[in-house]
Amino acid sequence: MPRHNDIYYMVTINEAVNAVKNNISPLFKEETKPLERCGGYYLSKDIVSPVNMPPFRQSAMDGYALFLHDNLSYTLIDEVKAGDHHRPALKPGEAIRIFTGAPVPETANAVMMQEKVVVDGSKITIENYVPEGHNIRPMGEQVKTGELALKKGTKLTPAAIGYLTSLGITEAQVYKKPTIALITTGNELVEAGEPLPYGKIYESNSKMLLNALYNLKFYDVTIHKIADDYIQTKNKLETVISNNDLVIATGGISVGDYDFVGKALKELQVKEVFYKVKQKPGKPLFFGKKEDTAIFALPGNPAAALSCFYAYVYIALQKMMNNDTIELPRIKARSMSEFEKRGDRPQFLKAIYHSDTVEILEGQNSSMLQTFALSNALVFVPEDVSNININDELEVILLPV
């Protein structure tokens, strides 16, 4: 997207979103990981089952395994519980006590649940006739040896990991997630836990964005903190751009005397895709590329930075992972609040969504996180809307929980 000659020109939100979509490609890098560390990853290869599951005929419940005959009475000859490996041989009219998950002997052809059996010593009487195969899980009912267990592109949820583990699988080949560098800039920033001198503030953007990434299951993240120094800024950006798939900087992107991020990116020949978006909060947002590395420079104000993360960086992350759904879900909800929008920029408002209603919260300043801390959604207000009234239908962006 070529930059407009007018220094006051801002791209629209739609232009910015489409620019991110069009300039980010799936990574398609692969790695093999232990299965227990694959949560949230996507399979890069089909997985074929090495075993039948279940690996034997299995009782679906506690009860009695029967060799069916033309009578409701049976002779009890043995017992098989889960984990047993002996195989009693039944004759017609014989039964064994059996428990859920236990192997059903080859000569048994039905299982009657214990609640429908009367026991009298070694004799049992079942309540009614049952068909062959009753309450028996066939060998390979879930998947057979050599069959496709999970196909390439499947997201490894806890259930998927449990399923693959039940097949004896210990590792999986997955699409590698992006390496990410977080950079915070500013002489005014102090680490939480340290004394707070006059004129300083505690730095929160790095922890905030780190946990936003962790919440989305992106863990290969490094944090870099730099002062308002041009050489230091340029050198750090050069290093992290060379070593990461995605760079996210906060602060230093505006046009102040000590805002060095934009100047450094230009000297490093980062291709500017867009700079400044017609939106509130988050107007001074930069997105660019250098070779295969994507670079976002977010506003320094925490609420603005997090809004831009969800509106744009989230899309880039999903595109890198080749996900089908790359934007946060949007729904319609009825307003429980009144709100007056000033200016002509579209706005993202912190809000609480519940059922089919949404409450716009007080305290929408781009520097304030207290309201964001209570939010589970953003209300999108288009530029042509100035006033929101109670019961108005609003567009709501649901945030990750």
Automatic annotation (TrEMBL):
Enzyme Commission number(s) from the entry: 2.10.1.1
Sorted UniProt keywords: Magnesium, Metal-binding, Molybdenum, Molybdenum cofactor biosynthesis, Transferase
Reactions the enzyme catalyzes: adenylyl-molybdopterin + molybdate = Mo-molybdopterin + AMP + H(+)
Pathway participation: Cofactor biosynthesis; molybdopterin biosynthesis
The protein's required cofactors: Mg(2+)
Keyword Transferase: yes
Enzymatic class: transferase
Family annotation (PROSITE patterns): MOCF_BIOSYNTHESIS_2 (PS01079)
Superkingdom of this protein's organism: Bacteria
Occurrences of domain MoaB/Mog (ranges): 181-319
Gene3D superfamilies associated with the record: MoaB/Mog-like domain (3.40.980.10), MoeA, C-terminal, domain IV (2.40.340.10), Molybdopterin biosynthesis moea protein, domain 2 (3.90.105.10), Molybdopterin biosynthesis moea protein, domain 3 (2.170.190.11)
InterPro entries to which the protein is assigned, alphabetical: MoaB/Mog-like_dom_sf (IPR036425), MoaB/Mog_dom (IPR001453), MoCF_biosynth_CS (IPR008284), MoeA-like (IPR038987), MoeA_C_domain_IV (IPR005111), MoeA_C_domain_IV_sf (IPR036688), MoeA_linker/N (IPR005110), MoeA_linker/N_sf (IPR036135)
Known role: Catalyzes the insertion of molybdate into adenylated molybdopterin with the concomitant release of AMP.
Family the UniProt entry places it in: Belongs to the MoeA family.
UniProt-recorded name of the protein: Molybdopterin molybdenumtransferase
Annotated source species: Flavivirga amylovorans
